[in-house]
Specification:
Layout (H helix, E strand, L loop, with lengths): L1 H7 L18 E5 L4 E4 L5 H14 L4 H4 L6 H8 L20 H21 L4 E6 L3 H10 L27 E3 L4 E7 L2 E6 L7 E2 L3 E6 L1
Parallel strand pairs: 4-7
Antiparallel strand pairs: 1-2, 2-8, 3-8, 4-5, 5-6
Length: 212
Amino acid sequence: MRKMFLVATVSLMFANATMADGGKNELVLINKSTNTYIDAHEVTVGDWCLFLEFYKKVFSEKPQKYADFLPNHEICTKAYGSENYLTDSKYRNYPMVGITYQQMKMYCGWRTDNVNKELQSKKSKQQYIYSLPEEADLQAAYDLQSDKNPKTGLRAVDENAKTVTGIIDNAQEMTQNKKVVTGVTVYGLRFENVSEPSALVGFRCKCVINNL
């Protein structure tokens, strides 16, 4: 009950960040031949709050179903050093951690639906498909990253970044095959298996843009 009560207090304080893709995150081209893009930075707490707001309304009469979308409160409190990580604007631009692989995939599905509804309303001839990146996608993105010197500790992302930032330099990031990037070797990025939510693990989306 405590978990549900805490997240029920999430307000529309982040509503001014709302965009067609559910947040403010530049897409960076990583593969021209497949028209594949990736987020410039990790999905943030602010992005996740918009996701929660949507499903809070959808499941207003089914609180147990809504609970499926909530982060692990104990893990997040440890990661951010505060119980108010969802409502305090200080944490809005921090990577969202403490969530499961399945929750990340649900976010990708929600973002796909949200963006394409917006595109359809504008009679666009494009379709955006969001998903978790493959290992090769993160490697391609990392190769484009200008700052390859890892720093320590979870910190806020640059919400206005136009190029790839944060790979091996902030949250460890989930891939489609349930591995996270944990560092870099002379051969490329290093990935390790992970099965549970963690104070260290976040994610970013890749996006394939199809012309209809």
